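hiii so my PI (J.) wants the whole complex modelled not just the main chain, which honestly fair. so below is everything: two entries, each one labled with what it is. i double checked the lines twice but i was tired so who knows lol
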Amino acid sequence: METNETQLIHRARRGDADAFESLVALHERFVYNLALRTLGNADDAADTAQEAFVRAWVALPAFRQDSLFRTWLYRIVLNLCINRLPRLRRELKDLTHDEMTEVPEPAASTPDPLNSLEAQEQRAFLHREIDRLPEQYRLLVSLRYQHELSYDEIASLLDLPVGTVKTGLFRAKARLREKLSTFKKEFA
Amino acid sequence: MSFLMDDPIEDALHTYALAETPANFSNKIMRQVRSTKNASMQFHLTWMDYALGLFLALLPAAGFLIWISLPQLALLQLEFQLQLLLTGILQPALVISLAVAGLMLFSVFLVSLNFLLRPRWWLA
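here's the output for the full assembly
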């Protein structure tokens, strides 16, 4: 698929709109979701994703292929998101201030004694809470778990130290843990 | 307690699904893309290139015209200044100036080469 994508990029760089359409088909869902999770609004996300693809089309001949096309595209989307949410850049930088020297590794998987229905409710609750996280955490969660980027890739994309990315994700999980605790008490 | 909770949280994060794109999303994108010019890799000249070319082509002719239309006295003064420059204490300064000018010209050549060989996507 990568070779296919490389060929599509090569053709699109020469102005082949059909090749670019194939690239859009490959990436539209990820681009849209990145904008959606960052901006938290479907209409804004659709506009931003559309604008990102148009910008990518215009700038494609300058794409040097020394980074992944996906990462390059995400950078365009994020810049557009930051234009719409100027405070996002500051909030991401602020994560650096309370960076943890050592971020604990996630705990090993423990069997959950919850029954299926309860587990489903809990999962749905957590998904809603992920959507309610502050945008800087939502962005990190989306990049890590939806787009499956490594810590290094996220750090490079957001121009942040890797430690800050890990801290941000740890804090996002801590918030979710707090919410889950409240949910469990109410449920009980 | 928190260890027991980490599992549902990891589970929720890993099952945090991608949302569906709006209907006809790629069609909307492509409609806009097709109406937007892509600065493809092909070589093309802009009005600025023509203007610059014309200016450079006219430069020697303008220099020649200025030289022949100068009054005799001014011409003599210029030749005298040139002789002064080529001899005596000003010679090392002239050599250094020429070397610096040559270096700058070479840098300009390299920059222009880079400019010509790279696509000018920002013109689109």
